[in-house]
Design goal:
This protein is an alpha+beta fold. The chain contains four helices and three strands. Strands 1-2-3 form a three-stranded mixed β-sheet.
């Protein structure tokens, strides 16, 4: 990814986080954490990676994110100076769960020694 694409992805990630925390009234969305962002080379699409450690199922979170995508994109357009705001696609990031699983396994190994 080029330096410009990295900068734009970083800006999008930061601003989406701020929009969710400060401007969203949806309590389900406030429980997610944006972990990363990737943009295509032509800046037409953005993959936004998120994680969620709350009580709701992944399907409920996906549905809420899908429902709020236009709200997030509209607010992102007001915050980032770009000619065209990329289409947003949310992707669940399971690296946090994977890390917790590895940590649990390592703890079990240590306890068994």
């Amino acid at each position: 990814m080029s330096l410009k694409a990295q900068r734009i992805a970083s800006d999008i990630q930061k601003e989406i986080n701020l929009i969710i925390i400060k401007e969203s009234r949806n309590e389900v969305l406030k429980a997610i954490t944006i972990t990363g962002c990737e943009v295509t080379t032509d800046f037409s699409k953005a993959k936004i990676y998120y994680t969620y450690l709350g009580d709701n199922s992944k399907e409920i979170i996906d549905a809420e994110l899908e429902r709020c995508t236009s709200f997030l994109r509209k607010n992102l357009a007001q915050r980032i100076d770009m000619r065209h705001i990329p289409e947003i696609n949310f992707i669940y990031d399971n690296s946090v769960e994977y890390g917790m699983k590895i940590e649990t396994l390592l703890k079990e190994i240590k306890d068994n020694e």
